[in-house]
């Protein structure tokens, strides 16, 4: 009788050790899946931001990041994490300022050949008990960017019914 009780006690200990290991692996797989999903969502937001950048007017540059943030965005991800840049043929940033005179503005506007949307400065938060895998539970998401060639940049042809309209509003 004594050896049967001893055997039951060993079975409980073995089950506890095995169940703990299996649960840790299971939650680890779930957490890695959440991280990969979050990275994919962020990548899709850069693609959408670049797409809006090539079809919206340059004056909407600061409005575009807020337009691409979805309900399924990772926790803590904001429009401040997305940057829209306009690039010339060489890949250098073209900066347009409202204080420029019209000739300088039009000259620089004509040099824009690409739009780059990038995400930087975002850290992904691991769930509490998985935080031992990283320093303080935070993972720095790698720099992600999407670069597309310009299309209309929001400039439309005036029509006879609306001759004053020169660009679309995103």
Task: Describe the structure in your own words.
Pfam families: TadE. Keywords: Membrane, Transmembrane, Transmembrane helix. InterPro entries: TadE-like_dom. The chain has 170 residues and is of the alpha+beta class. The protein has one domain. Helices cover 39% and strands 14% of the residues. Strands 1-2-5 form a 3-stranded antiparallel β-sheet. The protein has a two-stranded antiparallel sheet with strand order 3-4. The radius of gyration is 26 Å and the shape is rod-shaped. The termini are far apart. The model has no long low-confidence stretch (mean pLDDT 84).
In short:
With about 170 residues, the protein is of the alpha+beta class. It is about 40% helix and about 15% strand.
* Apparent shape: rod-shaped
User: What is the CA-based Rg, rounded?
Assistant: 26 Å
Please tally the helical runs, counting DSSP H or I stretches of 4 or more residues: 3
- Share of helical residues: 25-40%
Average pLDDT level: 84
Q: Estimate nothing, just give the exact number of structural domains.
A: 1
Please describe the biggest sheet, giving its number of strands, its sense, and whether it closes into a barrel: 3 strands, antiparallel
Tally of strands: 5
Structural class comes to alpha+beta
Poorly predicted spans: none
Distance between the termini: 80 Å
Strand arrangement, major sheet = 1-2-5
State the order of secondary-structure elements, H for helix, E for strand.
HHEHEEEE
Strand fraction = 5-15%
